[in-house]
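Submission sheet (multi-component)
Chains listed below:
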Amino acid sequence: MQIKTEEIGDIVLIKIEEERMDAHNSGTFKEQMLALFDEGKCKLIIDLSAVRFVDSSGLGALVSGFKNASARDGSLKLCGLQPQVRSMFELTRLHRVFEIFASVDEAQDSP
Amino acid sequence: MAEKVEVDITIPNQTRFLGLIGRIGENLVHSLGRYTGDREELAYQLNLVLTEAITNAIYHANENDPTKQIQIQISASDETLIIKVFDEGDGFDLTELTACNMSDTDECGRGIHIIRRLMDQVNYRKSKKRNVLEMVKKLH
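Outcome: structure written.
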């Protein structure tokens, strides 16, 4: 999965640089997040603004990251969801699980 | 005169073809002359249903065997959208895959649930040679 990471204090900002998050690339993304957790980095902000399409495997990878971050007293926040991607979270009711923000700045400013 | 579009494509049992089939599905929706609903939404839904159905076939029916194949048939008329996904494996149990609490933080199990939410009819038929997941959506 093509991603760009930037560290801002103890937060890691992950920008997904793929149009699709599906069964083909979400396994790699899970591993990329696990590598960050292994380094002790467990406060993640995931910028999904470039993602136009996400399927259940992509959602599963995000859920995996959320559970791993929570288990380490960290957090996983999402931002920049396109309308169709947002509707996927509503269809699967995962919008109740994740903290979802409009922008990276808003996600950073939240406690 | 009634319009009908049919697509029939066979791919290797590999996830790297998901994007290709999804794009074909989206383009097909954009080419439907008489559809009066939200075209962007229907295009996304067809992309999603195809992606979920093929992913299920790859992992659960064809057991990730890269030498097997998957055949996809899409038929769109003014009234209905019919999608058939054929696998070459031992098949899977549709009811087992549906057992998922959607508000839970399970990492898998949402695929068939999503298909059931978006399509009007979903059936999986097993036979000796091939199995088929058939999904129907009414367009009006």
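Remark: The beta strands of chain A are 3-8, 11-16, 20-21, 43-47, 53-54, 75-79, 99-101.
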